[in-house]
Design a protein that fits this description.
Number of helices: 2
Order of helices and strands: HH
Helix content: 40-55%
Distance between the termini: 41 Å
Radius of gyration: 13 Å
Shape: globular
Structural class: mainly alpha
Length: 59
């Protein structure tokens, strides 16, 4: 999928955790269509991004 992009749309509010579901669904769909993707790689990247950009809640 190099040099290709698609948009994940939603209606209404979305929490940081809710964004992981469509990423997971996209991974499964790409795998089913034969794209060479490692399941969980997109979700893991999103989790790391969310962790690195969020303010700590526990001090």
């Amino acid at each position: 999928m190099q040099d290709q992009a698609f948009r994940l749309g939603h209606m209404g509010d979305m929490s940081k955790l809710m964004v992981l579901t469509p990423i997971n669904d996209a991974e499964i769909s790409m795998k089913d269509l034969g794209y060479p993707i490692e399941l969980g790689s997109g979700v893991a990247a999103a989790q790391e991004y969310l962790r690195s950009t969020s303010k700590p809640r526990i001090q």
